[in-house]
Amino acid sequence: MARTQASDHQLQRDEILERAAQAFASHSYPGTSMSLLAKACGTSKARLYHYYASKEAILFDLLDRYTRVLIALAEKHADLANLIAAFLAEYEHSQTRHIALLNDVKFLEEPQRELILTAQRTIVNLFAEAIQRRFPQRTDAQNRSAITMLLFGMINWTFTWLKPHQDADKMSYADFAVLVTQIFMHGMEALPERPDNLSKTAT
Fold it and tell me: What is the pTM of this model?
């Protein structure tokens, strides 16, 4: 008869992922061993293997859960300004997970790596659709990707410098979201309308 999982099994996994994200951010993924992870979790390596078969399994679960959160946010907030604010609010509390997403996908084996890359492409496409809805006359197939990645370039690396919890003089994430939105929106509005889109509008 199969052994049933303890009622706190999911809670234990959440705690492991939280500690693992911190360890990967502090020591790098290659520099983090299962022994180090067990120590960070305050448990034995044998106990850690009860929850995860390998360090890679921990990394995949961490990235899979985090990208699912981001996809859900992007699907929920169709308005571009709300989308930017929602992502930066999430980034504020998920800095170590975001570091892993940006730096450690390459350490996954196929097909897990492709699953995370597909999730990342989904997030980018949802942003691109939000931008195109807001600026239909200024985006097309030629510039859509560049504009979308420009916006991600503004928000994706905030964990390297925006740390209001460490410095009271730092701008808050909420205020930074307003600043990004203003700069991006005004920049998009200053772009000339795309010729192809003008002809489509005329017809």
Answer: 0.89
